[in-house]
Structures are given as structure tokens and as C-alpha cells.
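Weekly puzzle thread! Below is a chain. First person to post its structure in C-alpha cell form gets bragging rights.
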Amino acid sequence: MPLPIPGLPARRALAVTAVAAITVLSATGCADFSDQERSANAGSFTTMPDGGGGPQQPPPPPPPTEDDQPPPSGPCVDPNPAVIATCLGTTSGVRPADPEGKSTYVAERTTGKIIISQRFGPQRTVATVPVDGGGDGGLIDFELSPTYLQDQMIYALISTGSDNRVVRIASGDSVKPILTGIPKGATGNMGSISFVSPTELRVATGNAGNAAAANNPGSLAGKVFTIDPNLSEPRPKIIASGFGSNVALCPDLESGSLYVADSGPEGDRLQQVEAGGVRTLWSWPERPGITGCAVAGGVISVSMAKAFRIDSLSAPSNANPAVGTPQQGDVKEQYGAVGRMTSFGPAMQIATINKTVSGAPPTSTNDRVAIYTSSGSSADDNT
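Winning reply:
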């Protein structure tokens, strides 16, 4: 049975709150969504007829939409209509910035910037945190506060010169450490964070290049744990151990299941966190380079940067605990190397890491964020 994720209804509420917060933020200076806002405020009401006997005039034509207008010119305009952010530095965490996923929050790993963007702009930096971007460290991941409308706080997993840590970023880029001392290495620093509830932040850490540390209960390397980010000295509660490098959390908000993708000693793998530990759902011994994962519409998608593809597997259920044979989606021509990803409704946002992956296409608009829909998986059982 899947491990129940505490506060699942609250988790759904957090997603709704985050989208609402993003919409308000977008309308208050981080991005210009004034047209969308005016349309939303207008509602669905129509003008009532005045009862006059004159001939009825045809309604005016609707205003042109973005799709009807020619794209602007410039070096950062991508012809792919699914692309919603361009000319970024090396990306890490990504979050949808509206319910339809047409705008995005994305982190630049080496610069420490969190940027909001929509197709054809504008693109603005909403926060910057000092980081050590050497190796695979830097601004590893981020989340909006569950009470963002009130406190304007952003939480982040970052690398410093001495450790990896969880911090809180306030208005004006004021940074406060929340949890310090997470092991840092030359590699194996990439992890992930996500809120379960306002008092529970889930954190996944890489093994910092030390496989033994991942199984050491005294180390925070290679772990999934939770903390209360509101406490001055939160005590981590470890819920799973033994993870490798580039650890990505994939919570399923519908079922409450938690999946984790990483690259361990046995190869790249997708695992499910259960009451008794972790269960491997699929492994890739050829090591195609796992860099991210997301769950949308009952499908788990896993990005493979070295193989330039996204594999899709059917999420397990009580009736069918197997995930089926992954369907491989070649994304090299369209997107190149994909890193982190996140879901919204039935689709996902994916962030490319072409600037750091050998053999990636040298697209002039790298790096980018795009909307992506998975293809599911076959009915064959995983054997």
C-alpha cells in the first residue's frame, strides 16, 4: 500500500493557494498579465437587450488572441509554441505560475535567480539568493510559502561554500537559514523540496558523492525527510534513505503517493515511498541520466538528460501495482536535454539544461521552459 502523505487535502489546498498567489504576484509587478486579469474580472456576463424594435446588430469580432498575432522579433523568441521561457541560464526547479501553465517560475541553478516568465515575455527576476554554483550545486530547488499572499516568502534548497541548506527568502532578498549542515560534495548535490502542509516541508537530498552516507542514519545525505520550516531549529524526520544523485520528488496529489527518481549504485531508477521503505518500480541500468520527474493524469514522467528523452509510465494502483513498460519520448530535436519538471492538471512544464549537457543541441534560445504532455506507458508488466 502507498504511504499516506500527511495532509493530502491541505496539499491540494496549497496548490490552489500557490496558483492564486502567483496570479496576484503577476498582477503586481513580477509579470504583466493585465489582459488576462481584465478578462477574468469581466466574467461571463452579457449585455441584456434593451427591448427596442430596431434591427439587431451583429456582435463585434473578438479581439485577437496571442495565437492570432505574429510573434515578435528578437534573439530570444522561440518558434515552438509550447515554449514559455527562453534565454535562461542553467535551470533547476520549475513551478507553474498560473492554472493553465502558460507562465512559469523557474530557477537558474548557477546564478541563484528565480524568474517569472510567459511566452514572449515579460521575464523578471523575483528573487536572488547567493549560492555556490560549482559542480552540480547552486540554487537546487524552491517553493512558494503556503501563505505567500500574506508573507511573500520563498523557500529554497541551496549550496553554499561549506554545505547544502534550506533557506527562507523574504522580500528584498533577505535570506534566513532554516536547516544547515546538509552534506555537500563535488557532485551529488541535486535534490528537491515540496510542501506537504504549512508546517511540513518535504526535502530530498543527493548523496554528495558518498554512497555510504545515503544509508547512514546519522547523515542527511541521500535522504527524504520532513521539517517544520516555521521552527528556528527544526528536527528532520527521515522517511526514506539510500538515494543516489540528482534526487527528484514526484508527489501524486490525486492518490497521495510519493515517487522519487534518482541515480543510484544500481543505475537510474524510479521508486515509490511506502510505509516499510522504498519500492523500486523501474530501473535503467544503462544510465540514461535521470534529471527529473512529475506525475500528471495517472502517468509518471521521468526526464533522461543524457538520452535526450522523457520516459512515461502508468502510475501503480492497488489493482495494478506494476507500472508497465515505459514509453520513450524522444525530445532531442524539440528540446534537447530536459532537467527538472513539474505538473499542472494533465500536463507538465519541463526545463532544459542544454548549456551543461554534452551533445545537447546548440539552440540560440537555450535554456528554456516548455509545456509538455506525456504519452503514458504500455500495458506490459514490469518484470
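Puzzle host: Confirmed. Bonus trivia for everyone else. The radius of gyration is 22 Å.
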